[in-house]
Amino acid sequence: MEPKLSNIDLHNESTLVDAIGRLVISGESINDILQKILEQSVTVCSGVRGFLAIVDHDRGELDVRYTFGEGWSEEKRLGRLKVSEETGRGITSHVAATSRPYNAPNVRLDPYYIRSFDDVKSELAVPLVDGYGRTRGVINLQSVHLDGFGEECERFVQALAKLGAIAMVVADHRSRETALVQIGKELTGFTDSEAIPQKVLDVTAEALSFEDCSLFLVDRSSGKLILRASRGPLKEMIGKAAYDIGEGLTGWIAQNKQSIRVHNPSSDSRWRGLHQELPNIEDGAFMGVPILGRSGLLGVLRVQRRRSPYNWFRNDFTEDEERILATIAGQLAVALENARLVDQLVKTERLAAWGEMSARSAHMIGNRVFAIKGDINEIEYILGTSESDPADAWKLLESVKNGIFLLEEILNEFREFVKATQIELVEADINSLIKEAVEESFPKRSGSVLRLNLQGDLPHVCADPTKLKRSFSELLENAISFQPDGGEVVITTSMANAENKSWLKSPSDSKEYVTLSFQDSGPGVKTEDKPKIFNPFFTSRAKGMGLGLSIVKGIIDAHDGAIYENGIPGAGAKFTILLPCVCEGPRRKQVNTEE
Amino acid sequence: MCRILVIDDEEAVRSAVKRRLERDGYGVDTAETQEQGIEAIGTHKPPYDVVVTDMVMESPTSGLEVLQAALSSDIFTELIVLTAYGNVGNAVECMKRGAFDYVEKNIPGVDVFELLSLKVQQALERRKVSLATLRKIEHFTSAK
Q1: What are the pLDDT digits (tens) for B21-53?
Q2: Which one of A338, A365, A390 terminates a domain?
Q3: Residues of chain A with pLDDT under 70
Q4: Mutation site for A-interface testing, chosen from B18, B62, B113, B117 by largest number of A Cβ within 10 Å
Q5: Which chain A residues touch B112 with a CB distance below 8 Å?
Q6: How many Å is the Cα radius of gyration of chain A?
Q7: What's the CATH number where A477 sits?
Q8: Which positions ≥6 away from A573 have C-beta within 8 Å?
Q9: Closest approach of chain A CAs to the CA of B144, in angstroms?
């Protein structure tokens, strides 16, 4: 049986209101809760119909989102109402503007009423007001009788409206919580410091429906705050818009390491209005928080809200919103510092590698040259003595030639090591690349047997074909050289699985990778050597400087891929490579090797 | 015949030095590692007259360790350190501790093999003088 006001004890609000209250707590979807509130209001108060409109704070409009009862056409369902305090603009608009319930016992005599349904005689409108005193929505009930809604009914609908407002706040918090967790997830393991700012703004805007949001980071060379990301018109000013520390509200936040939350920012004495997301922000709202890392100030995250064209509507930022922005800034700080550490580490590693590289190559080149000089010294001696045998001089010349070849080999490796990270990416078929590399470098008369185990329908990979073939050849040569008495070399291609992807620097479930492996039946890599094999100068072969595998790794890393060795020691080496399938357009990527 | 030991981890270096010193009429042995070199110094009878060693092999101070082994086997064994160009710090340290001299492997414009040959000759002379002095002292003390 439908509940009616007459058979509900409204003084004992343990029945319907309680039931709705439980819905709010249980985390029922906000749409279901509001629809139920509307339905119960209409039913209990014996209305002919009703609607629940949600306030759109940005536009100053009411969006009729929930309807119940007779006579709703699709057109009426999609209606929007302007919020207005003025007479003749509708009862709902008036209630939204004043945040107070309004009972119109006879709509014909009512100054605010606008006609929408012909049969309406009386109306009741009750606002949903949140803890900050903001109207979030309005319940509108209509009756075909004069004075259709009594005092008791008004009290009952008010109780439900309160619950509705709470439900909306709870839902907001839930979605913000989800967004914050999302930001946290996005930022963990995100090591590309260039891409972090924009990523954060995107998620922030989505989560908090700020109108515009900008991120300024401290530039370490100039000491200024430079715009690094923005969602509004300032987007064009990224890298250009700047504040001195202490300049304007943004500079004040940086100087004092404190947040600012102001209404009418232009009336604030610190306001300079240098770079604005919104043209009419003078009378809007401004909120900014410092981004503080362990090493001190990293930047300022700020949001602005447009001036509300409606006197009745306060659109200043709330304390809650400030807390959320501060939380985002905190997560951002951690991510930025992590990314900077990774950057530094990479640079330091590279620098160390370069130092060692120069020392080693100087030593190797020095020794070769020393030996060549020895040969020449001997040739001079032989040619200077009358009884000497010219055949000896020829032998020595041969040795000089070999010495020079060795030098060239060293120089070659050196050059390839340097160029490994300079790649030009295009979309390429991995299986064809492998076949070409095999054709070019697998010796025709080799004791080793080659087996290709290539999966046919693989997506294209993002590759520098020349560089990749060079690394495949290196792996092939390696495999063959470690099994001089013959054996098997198996090359396999397939899509990467989760285990493969775990070797990536920043594993991502969503990105697709192709994997290829080179497996031989040689002695394999000893467990204690596994962490070292990709280091420059680690070699168990006599040729060159031992840069081969480090060059291969350099090439694969430059492809944003991964390479690892996972063979069983004693049973053959197995090198596995992961390459990304998606190419963000052919691009040139260059790592600055001078650094 | 004077005996010389050449220690270097590069075959090309060992054979070139050996060949040049043999031309001067010395008997030349070679060792590939610091360890092998130290073993040869300890077991060779009579002791080597001159040891030519690379400074940097297993460790940056390989030359110092060879020096220590040579001096403890025969206090008058002369040591010449081969060093990479521009890297003389440890070689100077060797000289402070009693090495005869050092030779940079890659001095631009200099025929280091002739230089080395000269240094070996000088080292042998110093050893001869030292041994002669020792004999005189021995003679003097035993006559007393």
Answers
A1: 999 999 999 999 999 999 999 999 899 999 999
A2: A338
A3: 1-14, 58, 83-88, 188-194, 206-211, 278-283, 307-315, 350, 506-509, 540-545, 583-595
A4: B113
A5: 370, 373
A6: 37
A7: 3.30.565.10
A8: A478, A479, A482, A518, A519, A520, A522, A524, A525, A565, A567
A9: 51
